[in-house]
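Page 37, continued from 36.
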């Protein structure tokens, strides 16, 4: 089955969570790329720019916090929207620290899907404005 929809990068060290989110997004027409940590995620983003990154904050190798620092420091990647997912949840504190929407684990899949759809629409609109 070939998917031609927007690309979503799912970054989580838990393979079961990557698979669950990937299946949900694939079922809604998105192409899903997966990474197990922030280092892999940055590599995947450089290979193919996603319309949004779904990012776990607590991971080995390069965690979500360091991923965000590196992403924001890279002019080619800085404007890719990110939705963080985490077991640590104080939405005001996390938004202040990361500058992105954060969803609590366990994830409400309908809420995640809505957040991804909004982020992709905004991302594609921004890309259209900058290329036109």
């Amino acid at each position: 089955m070939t998917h031609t929809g927007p690309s979503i990068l799912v970054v989580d060290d838990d393979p079961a969570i990557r698979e669950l989110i990937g299946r949900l997004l694939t079922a809604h027409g998105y192409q899903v790329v997966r990474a197990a940590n922030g280092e892999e995620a940055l590599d995947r983003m450089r290979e193919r720019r996603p319309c949004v990154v779904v990012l776990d904050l607590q991971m080995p190798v390069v965690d979500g916090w360091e991923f965000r620092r590196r992403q924001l420091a890279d002019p080619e990647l800085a404007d890719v929207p990110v939705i963080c997912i985490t077991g640590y949840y104080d939405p005001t504190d996390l938004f202040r620290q990361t500058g992105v929407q954060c969803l609590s684990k366990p994830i409400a899949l309908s809420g995640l899907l809505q957040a991804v759809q909004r982020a992709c629409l905004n991302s594609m609109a921004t890309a259209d404005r900058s290329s036109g």
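The longest helix spans residues 109-131. Flag for discussion at group meeting. Helices lie at 15-27, 38-47, 64-73, 91-98, 109-131.
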